[in-house]
Amino acid sequence: MLNISNLSKTYLPEKKEALKNIHLQIQKGEFTALLGQNGAGKTTLINILAGNVLKTAGMVTIGGYNLDTHALETKRIIGIVPQETGYDSTFPVYETLKKQSGYFGMRHNGATIDELLEALYLTEKRNSNIRELSGGMKKRFLIAKALVHRPKILVLDEPTAGVDIEMRHTLYDFLLRLHQEGTTIILTTHYIEEAEKLCDRVVIIDSGRIIADEPKTQLMENFSREVTVEFQFDFELELADMAFLNMYHPQIEEKTRLQLRVPKKDLPKVVHMIAQKNMAFVDLGIEKPKLEDIYLSLIHR
Ligand SMILES: Nc1ncnc2c1ncn2[C@@H]1O[C@H](COP(=O)(O)OP(=O)(O)OP(=O)(O)O)[C@@H](O)[C@H]1O
């Protein structure tokens, strides 16, 4: 669906290398998170796909069309939701979406626009000037604008930044529905829980390079070889009595909870070691690392 090879971008005149030899293949129907710190190169990549920034080297095909030779065709396949909310216009919402449809030769898609306005909670604002929308409404308007031509791929550059929590969850539901209906989605975000909740693949960019690209479950699996295990007892514990567990870094919380860091393969052994000491626990919890921990450990590696 999207094929990026040897993609590089150097901004002149400072010769800032924003992307360094990027390779990325996105299959139809994937929901991919593109993560990276400020300045990692995410927006540059999206702007290249949108045709707003010229690449320095490499090849991009979108839905089989080469971006260099078939720019117009690529625009029909992809919908881009830009990061900035500086989008300003004195035109009304509905009229702008209608005009946007016109660019793609879609003249009778009033029903699609109505549906989008409804799903994005903008129906009441259909006749308002875009300038009068709040930041969060503008974001939703930009999503509608990217979708009026029913693109097969939707790319969103931090769609939920500055959007309140309730509306963020509404957007998650909207994106999940869109994905279920077959749209391929690429999402950049700084909210790791967003990637965790929505995406099935995680690509991490650092200083213009892809440093991780894996199915989310695989990435988490690779990093979750060690888990935190917490045993709850109904009597008070002494750290000195836990020396037999020293290799698992024992810690006592609120006198009755014992926390250990245990490689997964040692879990049965640890339970056995505790049972052998006649320490009957009343509850047991296992905490796997979160995507956030994995992300931080990768970019600081
Ligand atoms: N027009 C430009 N001219 C020169 N340098 C630029 C330009 N646009 C971006 N850069 C630089 O390229 C690098 C990548 O920037 P980019 O905006 O792609 O990062 P990002 O990952 O989207 O960051 P953020 O999370 O802050 O949006 C940064 O060092 C940035 O300063």
UniProtKB/TrEMBL annotation:
Domain named ABC transporter: residues: 2-232
Alphabetical list of CDD domains matching this protein: ABC_DR_subfamily_A
Keywords: ATP-binding, Nucleotide-binding, Transport
Listed GO MF terms: ATP binding; ATP hydrolysis activity
SMART domains membership: AAA (SM00382)
InterPro entries given in the database record: AAA+_ATPase, ABC_transporter-like_ATP-bd, ABC_transporter-like_CS, ABC_transporter_ATP-binding, P-loop_NTPase
Family membership noted in the UniProt record: Belongs to the ABC transporter superfamily.
Annotated PANTHER family: ABC TRANSPORTER ATP-BINDING PROTEIN, ABC TRANSPORTER ATP-BINDING PROTEIN NATA
Listed name of the protein: ABC transporter
